[in-house]
Amino acid sequence: MATNKPSVFNFLNVTESMNTINRERLEEIRSAYANMNDTEPIENTTNNEDAKIKLLADKFSLMNDAENLVHLNKCISEQFLDVACHAILGEYLRIRTIEQRKARRNQSSPASSTIPKITTEPIAQASEASMVTKVLPQVFCQILLKKNRASMLEFCQDFLLCPLAKAASTRR
């Protein structure tokens, strides 16, 4: 019988925004863990802590696989609620970033049928084709300045944004 237990992220409604985290549920988890620590003798062995986290997952009907137990541990290990929220959000964003990178890698890896066939042109013709230039009537350039200093603005206006003919004549 398979039960559909939510993950810690789903239970707490974690998304890319800090505002969506269900702080009431997070506080319930933290309070339940604090009550476990108050009612049981203080024994801070790793096995005892892992067992408490598993009991906590069972109490809230959460998935109790290794990954979700790590996330649950992040909920309870921080001293303050806000810090726990940041830790959970950070973990969520880290996992999402990894998933997105994997998805991009899978999309960008070409299938064997889409690889272009290499032509056997003579080298002279290939180098000639690569030397052909195309005149562009306009070029759009976006320059982002991290420091808004007069010297930077002057450099951009006098050198980077000057017409090419003017730059070529001043270099000679």
Rg computed from alpha carbons, rounded to a whole number of angstroms = 29 Å
Helix content: 55-70%
Unreliable stretches, pLDDT < 50, 5 or more residues? 112-121
The overall pLDDT, averaged over residues, is 78
What is the overall number of helices? 8
Estimate the global geometry from the Cα principal axes: elongated
Distance between the termini: 82 Å
Number of distinct beta strands: 0
Description of the molecule:
This protein has 172 residues and is mostly helical. It folds into two domains: 8-108, no CATH class; 135-171, no CATH class. The protein has helices at residues 8-11, 23-39, 46-59, 66-77, 81-108, 123-131, 150-160, 164-171. It is elongated, with a radius of gyration of 29 Å. Residues 112-121 have low confidence and may be disordered.
Salient structural properties:
mainly alpha, elongated
Report a brief summary of the structure.
By secondary structure, the chain is mainly alpha-helical. It has helices at 8-11, 23-39, 46-59, 66-77, 81-108, 123-131, 150-160, 164-171. The protein contains eight helices and no strands.
